[in-house]
Amino acid sequence: MVKKIKVLIVDDSKTIRALIKHAFQKCPELEVCGEAANPMEARDIIVKDQPDVITLDVEMPGMNGLQFLDKIMRLRPIPVVMVSSLTERGANIAIKALQMGAFDCFPKGQGATGADAFAGLARIVVQAAHSKPGSQSIRREMSGQVGGRISANGTGNWRHMFDVVAIGSSTGGVEAVEDVLRNLPQSSPPIVICQHMPRLFTASFASRLNQIIPQFGIEEAKDGEVMRPGMVRIAPGGDMHLVVDKTGGGICTRFFKAPPVSGHVPSVDVLFTSVAENIGRNALGIILTGMGRDGAEGLLSMRRIGCRTIAQDRQSAVVYGMPRVAAEIGAAEQICSLKQIPHTAMTML
Q1: pTM of the predicted model, to two decimals?
Q2: Which whole number is the average pLDDT over 225-229?
Q3: Does residue 294 have an active-site annotation?
Q4: Choosing from 11, 104, 196, 269, which is the catalytic residue?
Q5: Are 102 and 72 in contact (CB under 8 A)?
Q6: Could you say which of 84, 135, 169, 170 is catalytic?
């Protein structure tokens, strides 16, 4: 018999705990080993039952989720999935949690009701059980990544090498995207990013990146905005796909409504395909860590017309899903560690 994944549910709402537990009971791989209304109760259960994964409410009385997450990561590392309210405050805290080492963040209240509101949480918990807690930080240490931008000297005219750079990522992408951007010079081609996140979360992500890497002026993408070198734009979460197109003034970003592609809106496949169809071969596509296969087919379309393409490798990816599929179908011209991606991108001739 395959050993089940033991999950501890931490939430101050008894109703929410019951709904999450009901959702987990539908997944044969999971076993709820305990429920806690606050971090103090959770601490006792952790010692007694040694859960494989913890789902943790972002905001609780006594000690908030971030404070408890910090203690977990420092004293008893366990994969943690944050459960956040779909509010601006909840989104801001969730982004901080991901940067502190949480595996992923699941938003409450995306339209579904009852146990259906947590239907997608079980899949994330299963993936978390196979990860290393705080793995983003661990991988950076293993690869020797210390931050700081790479000089453009000796790397060719990076600013004008590509009309646009398109990046796609999902689980683990918050820190991966940050690591890539902080190691690129300000004089970079226009960069467009599709990171799987719900609405509000992408706005918080862009704002936090802009504080950390202010020289780029990182913002959420706007419909019809003309991209210039040194600009970084992130696809807003919600119900619109983001594409890039050519106009008389250069490269611009556009939105359109359509069903999910590869299970997502916005979709990395849609972004990458628009690069292949609208921009041409003078572009670069980068696919980073994430569950599923979104972006792999779009990256293949880019490579087929002559674009340069890069996929993150297994060792440095938090979840080797999206880049794995891209590698398997031949979409990735180069497969590199997270540390190597900026330099590889800047030296592709």
Answers
A1: 0.91
A2: 95
A3: yes
A4: 196
A5: no
A6: 170
